[in-house]
Amino acid sequence: MSGTWSLADSPHAPLRWAAEIAAGVAVKYRNDPALPITQVLLTVAPPSQENDWSFTEQDSLLYEGLSVFAVADDGTVSVLRLTTTYQTNPAGMADDSYLDVETLNTLAYVIRVTLTTSAGRTKVVQVRLQIAQGVASMAPVVPLLPGGNFIPPNAIVLPNGSVLVTGSGQALTI
To answer: Source organism's superkingdom (predicted)?
Structure first.
C-alpha cells in the first residue's frame, strides 16, 4: 500500500463510495459476518492527492467514526477498516464496544440464527445455571407436541392453536 488518502478530492461522488463499500461489505458479510471488514476492493478512482496520515492520525479518525482506506501503487482502492459512529452508551459514558462494524454484523447474525433456529433443526439441551438465592428467575417455556417433540418456530399453527403434524409426530414447517 502506498498510503492512506483523503476522500475530499476524489473524482467520484461520496454516494458512489458509500454504495461500493456497502456492496463489498455485503459480499464479505454473507461469507462470514465475524471476519474483519478489511481489504474490500473498490472500483472508484483514487483521490489525486495523498495525505500520508500517520498511524496515530488514522486511529483518531477511526475513533471518531471515520473509516480509512488505502490506495495501492497500481491505483487500486481498498477499505482498511470500517467503523461506526457509536461513541457513548445510553448512560452517556464513553464506549467503544461497537466501534467496529464486525461487532454489529456478528450480533445481528447471532440474533437472526437464534431466532430462526431456537428449537427447529437444532439439539436443545437443558442448561442448569446456579442462580443466587433471592434472585427472580424462571425456567423458559418450551412448547412441546403431545409426543414430547419440540415445536419449531416455523411450525404451521392453525387458528385454534393446534399444530399440524406428520404421521410420525413431527411438526409440519413452512
So the answer is: Bacteria
